Amino acid sequence: MPTKTLRIPTTDGQADAFAAFPDHSERHPGVLMYADGFGIRPVLREMARELAGHGYYVLVPNSFYRHGPAPLVELPEYIGEEVRPAVFAQLMPLIEAHTAERVLSDADAYLRFLTTQPEVGAGPVAVTGYCIGGLYAMRTAAAHPDQVAAVAAFHGPVGVDGANLFSKLTAQVHLGHAEGDMTPEALGELNQTLDAAGVGYTSEIYPGTIHGFTMSDTDAFSASGLKRHWDRLLPLLDRTLANS
After folding, report:
1. What percent of the chain clears pLDDT 90, i.e. is strictly above it?
2. Distances 86 to 73, 75, 130, 131, 159 between C-alpha atoms, Å
3. Per DSSP, what are the bridge partners of residue 58?
4. Going by C-beta distance under 8 Å and a sequence separation of 6 or more, which residues neighbour residue 94?
């Protein structure tokens, strides 16, 4: 599986990024993948490679590039509960500094870069994200309705921007919520808001999961949750990007 380490020009500098794509000369649909708060690391590279193996060019930017290249903090191979507080104490200032305005400015640059890569075909793209990256993915899709055909967010705070964001979406949406993050009542309220906005979506709680369930280098990991994630994500991309 070919991979590249790239630098994406933005209005505030150069964002380092990782890309994975199929090993043949055809062009492929593009997918912008936003990492969780821990950023680009081996597990994210592996997820990008796995998705690329299904026929996609996958671009994973370092969202916090303004503070330096990834990894911005020293991460252990396994992020357990005993180290999580110390790691998040270093990461939270970076997350808080990454305002909605910066997310949208970067999204313009990331999509412009993705759609001009020689391995990427013409046509719409998809955006996916994990944890805080799920919110970035939703903001990107809402800001680029003519480019983004599908958006998926997993264990992300997607309701933060509320109905104002949802009303701008034209992409097909999948939201995979952690059971530890979302009560059935809160899910019902979120889905009612999506219905009122006219969004085409699926939105569900993944049974037996806690926040961060897709990430195999954390103790939040759920093998069944990750499998359900692929079972939802791959058909969504196949439906919406088949002609890209």
Report:
1. 94
2. 10, 10, 20, 18, 27
3. 20, 31
4. 64, 67, 72
Nearest to 24, CA basis, from 1, 44, 58: 1
Average the pLDDT over 125-147 and give the result: 98
What's the angle, vertex CA 83, arms to CA 82 and CA 89, rounded to 5? 125
Helix, strand, or coil (residue 152):
strand
pLDDT at position 162 = 83
Q: Which two tokens stand for residue 110?
A: 């990331």
Cα 50 to Cα 44: distance, rounded to the nearest angstrom: 10
Q: Which residues contact 46 (CB under 8 A, 6 or more apart)?
A: none
pLDDT of residue 156: 94
Residues in the chain: 244
Q: How far is it, in rounded angstroms, from Cα 156 to Cα 11?
A: 26
9 CB-contact burial (10 Å; exposed 0-12 / middle 13-18 / buried 19+): exposed
Alpha helices in 24-83 (DSSP H): 42-52
Q: What's the token pair of residue 105?
A: 């400015």
* 80 torsion bin: left (phi>0), alpha (psi -120 to 50), beta (else): beta
